[in-house]
Amino acid sequence: MKPRYKRLALISVGVVGLTVSGLFVLNAFQSNLVFFFSPTEIYSGKAPVDKEFRIGGLVEKGSVKKSADGLTVDFIVTDNNKSVTVHYRGVLPDLFREGQGIVAQGKLRDHRFLAREVLAKHDENYMPPEAAKALEGSAYKKP
């Protein structure tokens, strides 16, 4: 085989290898991509069913119901327009409380959000940007 064809074969193998590895990276990125939705967007049908996403808003006062085992919690997240019931099994963050801004990650099933993870804001003035945007235009006033 001539050196010219060897070089062409080597370049072709390199291009194919880079293309395949790039496709693997893009596939991994797309499968780990998680979108954010407010309760109003969920009710309008924008949120996917049986696919993981994040929901954010305020924990409605008087809505937190803990089970006897202490690990299962049901509460309502609101953006002051619409509300969604959240079911979570696990240890809640120390800063979790009623009236608090939270972001939960999980799936929507049977008109309930089954959370896999719950995150609470870390100080009195912080709110996740997604949750703050979702609450824009509502009666909520930032502290």
TrEMBL record:
Q: Cite the ranges annotated as topological domain Extracellular.
A: 29-143
Does the keyword field hold Isomerase?
A: no
The Gene Ontology CC terms held by the record are: plasma membrane
Give the family this protein belongs to, as stated in its UniProt record: Belongs to the CcmE/CycJ family.
UniProt keyword Transferase present: no
- Write down what this protein is called: Cytochrome c-type biogenesis protein CcmE
A GO molecular function held by the record: heme binding
User: What Pfam families does this protein's entry cite?
Assistant: CcmE (PF03100)
